[in-house]
Write a sequence for this structure.
């Protein structure tokens, strides 16, 4: 079993420090402890701008608000690795950082929780359903026109509390976070990824490290999942072609099927009035080509006009 240099056994793992973040840290650290019993994994809490500002709408803050401070601590050498929800990460990483490991994906679906514990189609007229996501907002408008979509902020536990009539009657959240916290009993319905196409990377944990840290690259090999790496590479590359951090409602969900890679993509206007979806198939070992094919499918259906509306001057590119 691999062992570390006796003079360098402490591994500093960056974390946001919330209950969910700590559960995610343990999901990464537990198998590493089994592989490297001589190492001491120390969780270091870093407060991010997304956690500090609980009043601003998430949609206006852009991708990266839950990772930037952790990345800076990595670059400064104060951390050896940082654990993130991949869906929170920008498609382009800062110079000097890489994704050292992509873990096996957990449940990628969105879920509905509500005070009546009923499925989406049975929600009463005017039910207040909370989300801070433009994608979920547009999908709710299209799939549950009887509800009223309202903004909601806070960690998973806070949002669950708010769904009991305090501020909302329900909310749409990621299944993986609720399951990781042991709160699956609160789920009223798992939403089909065909109706609610997840965002790139949902349900996936990523470990970010310095690009020149060969020791960490080698250490993380036991937790790397090749299939999830292919899937999320395609999903994130599609988002990059759309515009990366643009605030259009975008979903992309890929799955490996043998040597094939299948991806469902979704894009809509903010109000949900224009929706573009496609199912794309390609070779597992060429996820960038699959992303390009998915983007072309959106362009052919007229979706490029939406991209240009929010990103003037955006032209088609490929990998």
């Amino acid at each position: 079993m691999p062992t570390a240099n006796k003079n360098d056994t402490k591994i500093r793992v960056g974390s946001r420090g919330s209950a969910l973040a700590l559960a995610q840290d343990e999901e990464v650290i537990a198998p590493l402890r089994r592989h490297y019993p001589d190492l001491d994994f120390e969780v270091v809490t870093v407060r991010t701008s997304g956690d500090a500002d609980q009043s601003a709408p998430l949609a206006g803050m852009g991708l990266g608000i839950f990772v930037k401070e952790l990345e800076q601590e990595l670059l400064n050498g104060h951390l050896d690795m940082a654990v993130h929800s991949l869906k929170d990460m920008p498609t382009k990483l800062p110079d000097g950082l890489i994704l050292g490991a992509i873990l096996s994906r957990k449940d990628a679906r969105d879920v509905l929780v509500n005070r009546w514990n009923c499925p989406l189609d049975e929600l009463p007229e005017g039910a207040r359903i909370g989300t801070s996501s433009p994608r979920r907002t547009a999908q709710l408008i299209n799939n549950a026109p009887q509800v009223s979509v309202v903004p909601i902020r806070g960690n998973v536990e806070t949002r669950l509390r708010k769904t009991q009539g305090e501020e909302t009657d329900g909310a749409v959240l990621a299944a993986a976070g609720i399951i990781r916290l042991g709160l699956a009993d609160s789920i009223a319905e798992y939403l089909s990824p065909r109706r609610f196409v997840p965002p790139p990377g949902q349900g996936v944990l990523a470990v970010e490290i310095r690009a020149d840290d060969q020791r960490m690259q080698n250490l993380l090999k036991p937790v790397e999942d090749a299939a999830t790496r292919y899937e999320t590479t395609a999903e994130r590359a599609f988002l990059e072609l759309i515009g990366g951090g643009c605030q259009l409602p975008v979903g992309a969900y890929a799955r490996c099927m043998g040597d094939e890679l299948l991806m469902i993509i979704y894009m809509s206007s903010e109000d949900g009035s224009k929706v573009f979806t496609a199912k794309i198939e390609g070779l597992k070992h060429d996820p960038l080509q699959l992303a390009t094919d998915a983007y072309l499918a959106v362009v052919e259906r007229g979706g490029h006009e939406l991209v240009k509306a929010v990103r003037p001057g955006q032209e088609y590119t490929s990998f």
